[in-house]
UniProtKB/TrEMBL annotation:
GO terms for cellular component: membrane. The keyword Transcription does not apply. Its cofactor is Zn(2+). The keyword Transmembrane helix applies. It comes from the Bacteria. PANTHER family: METALLOENDOPEPTIDASE OMA1, METALLOENDOPEPTIDASE OMA1, MITOCHONDRIAL. Residues 84-257 form the Peptidase M48 domain. This is M48 family metallopeptidase. Belongs to the peptidase M48 family. Binds 1 zinc ion per subunit. InterPro entries: Mito/Outer_Membr_Metalloprot, Peptidase_M48. Keywords: Hydrolase, Membrane, Metal-binding, Metalloprotease, Protease, Transmembrane, Transmembrane helix, Zinc. The chain crosses the membrane at residues 27-49.
Length: 266
């Protein structure tokens, strides 16, 4: 059999058109499609987390994070600090008896830092800083702060923030590399979790409601916000304000909600 080579013309090209220009066009299409897919994955994480959260019980959360201890937890406490933590634990235990609070073993720990702040961690851990205790020392003022953190547990804000942080970290690792390091880097940096203003307002209302249920009054609940309002909102060490509503606005909202609680209790 004699082989006869034929000219296949444009059909000989694996892709339509052929040439460098066509190749660049196809690469552009692939890059655009990949980018669109990753962006869709990135923005779907919030939906996926919101869909999954109701299916994770508080008991399951505690089982998952029972052994978790924030890296900055103070150890070798001084006697007066031990007494402070016990007092806070007693307040949390009584606040947690309020309506709507998940029946999980809340635990109070101390962060030995000047920063004025408090945190809610998955599994029921509430961290309070030394700086906050130096500014707020009344039972009602502390009850509101602790009740506010319990409010984040009620709303599952801490798990929602953790899920979104991990999920988006995974997407970033797919785009920029990094592999499994994303898990350790993000779980070790839980302090970076922040909440939306709506979440903060909801936690404020829950904190005030729990404070009112425990003490029968709310006067003094806004002590932290009144102290913060005197400071520059973006001053060093006031990270509490960086993602939170303005203190003046929160004070006004608390006063309005306190009046509502009083009317409902009559």
């Amino acid at each position: 059999m004699k082989f006869v080579q034929r000219d296949m013309g444009a059909a000989a090209e694996a892709s339509s058109g052929g040439g460098d220009r066509q190749l660049a066009r196809e690469i552009g299409i692939i890059c655009a499609a990949t980018t669109a897919l990753l962006l869709a994955l990135y923005f779907s994480i919030g939906w996926l987390v919101d869909f999954t959260l109701p299916r994770i019980s508080a008991e399951t959360e505690v089982a998952w994070f029972r052994e978790f201890v924030p890296a900055t937890t103070a150890t070798n406490l001084k006697p007066e600090q031990t007494a402070q933590v016990r007092k806070l634990q007693d307040l949390v235990d009584r606040l947690a008896l309020g309506p709507g609070v998940p029946r999980i073993p809340f635990r109070v720990v101390l962060f030995d830092t000047d920063e004025v702040n408090a945190f809610a961690f998955p599994g029921g851990t509430i961290a309070v800083t030394r700086g906050l205790l130096e500014k707020i020392d009344t039972d009602i003022g502390l009850s509101f702060v602790l009740g506010h953190e319990i409010g984040h547990f009620v709303q599952r804000d801490h798990l929602r923030g953790l899920g979104r942080t991990l999920g988006r970290g995974i997407v970033f690792s797919l785009i920029f590399g990094g592999g499994g390091e994303v898990f350790t880097s993000h779980t070790a940096n839980l302090l970076d979790l922040s909440y939306s203003r709506a979440q903060e307002k909801g936690a404020d209302e829950i904190g005030l409601r729990l404070t009112y249920a425990l003490h029968g009054q709310t006067e003094g609940s806004d002590a932290l916000f009144r102290w913060l309002a005197k400071k520059q909102t973006n001053s060093t060490g006031l990270n509490l304000l960086s993602t939170h509503p303005q203190s003046e606005s929160r004070i006004a909202d608390l006063e309005a909600y306190a009046e509502k609680l009083k009317r409902e209790s009559r």
